[in-house]
């Protein structure tokens, strides 16, 4: 399935100008049909999976309890 730059920006939650820049830099594969750039949606599946995986890892780290420090002196 092919998306326009606007649809791709909405799909990835990025500004249109950012997506246009990536297309111009050839960091995103796109086809120019004479009027607009068309971007294959399937090229982002790996990226989106990695983003979800990193979100889960960060959430696990943030939810991990802080261990009690062994070197803390008892100052009673």
UniProtKB/TrEMBL annotation:
UniProt superkingdom: Bacteria
Domain Helix-turn-helix: 2-50
Pfam families, A to Z: HTH_17
GO molecular function: DNA binding
NCBIfam families, A to Z: excise (TIGR01764)
Protein name: Helix-turn-helix domain-containing protein
Lineage: Bacteria, Bacillati, Bacillota, Bacilli, Bacillales
């Amino acid at each position: 399935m092919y998306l326009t730059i606007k649809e791709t920006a909405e799909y990835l939650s990025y500004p249109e100008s950012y997506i246009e820049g990536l297309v111009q830099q050839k960091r995103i594969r796109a086809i120019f049909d004479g009027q607009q750039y068309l971007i294959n949606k399937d090229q982002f599946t790996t990226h989106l999976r990695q983003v979800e995986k990193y979100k889960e890892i960060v959430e696990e780290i943030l939810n991990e309890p802080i261990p009690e420090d062994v070197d803390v002196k008892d100052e009673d």
